[in-house]
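Write out the 3D structure for:
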Amino acid sequence: MKTEIFTTKDTGQFLTYLSKLNKNNSSFLLIFAPVHLVDEKLLKEIQKNINFDYVVVSAAAVLDKKEFKENFIQSIFFQFEKKGKINVFYKENLSLNYEHISDFLEKKLKETQTNIIFSTTSNVALNMIIDKLGFFDGNTILAGGIASSNHPKFLTKLIYNGNTIKDGFVLLQFENVYSSVTVSSGFVPVGPAYKITKSHLNRIYEIDGISSYFFLEKILRGTGLSPEDLDMEKTSKYLWSFPFIVIEKNFGHMTFCRTPKEYSEKEGAFKFWGNFDIGDRIKISIGDPEDIVETTELDVKIFKYHLMEINAKPEFILNFSCVARYELLKKSQLQNEEAKIFRRLFLSTPVAGMLTFGEIAPDKTEKKINFYNQTSVLVALWESDV
């Protein structure tokens, strides 16, 4: 499998590059682009230049070599040299029909080992679909993320062969391609564990029997803020450094982060970018940028060692990293440190990726797929010799 990565801020350069691609029947094109550029004009020009499947995902920034670049277009051109192939499936209206769509996705995941998903639905709907998936045998990989953007209203876009996917996802099903995934967080749980006693999807109403309002008042003490002040902008500014961590019920270790979104005075609910269940045990965490970078380096080193142990030789690595994680690191001017780690430890392997509004990857057991916030996910891919 060969991958060719091209990154530019100039639409004209991008279209010129497309016109010169060495096309064949085993080709596939994955494009990350700023949401404001994903319009009919660009799509018509893309279709003029290629005659094979492509997917366009809006992204607030892309990973290019040693840095993340905001408002850049990035294309990843796949060409398979053996029996590799990408089949594309998509579903729309996830929010209205999540149970049926979850069954469809589970069935598809049993067909191949390697699956990449991109979504433009709400975090709530995709989280529900992922949670409903059953357990797998450890050989099934599903990884991906929700499209992102710098749009003030969080608008995103997802395109498959010129068609806009509304409230849905695109599934890239890789045939005869092996994969391995690692998930890095770096957020440290602190203080006592609390129990969610009243919630619905991404809304928390009570924690340990105390209203979320009074719980937030306690957290915000000394900041000069009240819960009513927590719109999406202020929440991202002040609370993205302190996501909630859900603690695994049986083993006591961290399972995933949940990024705060806003406080709804009308609903009396503290809203997040991912869902909770009543009875979940949570801890507040501290997102220290230097700790996050150190954890990333350790996790990537372990990942590299694992690949060596199974005698895998990755031909391409795809990164999905959360917008909230990026913005937190950016406050300390460390937003490119993770990219430098990927480049240093996988010097001979092409690495590319995008910022997301939510990540999907297997849990520590590699048998259950999770919906994550504020993580960095690496997916290593290599074509089978069989």
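The mean pLDDT is 93.
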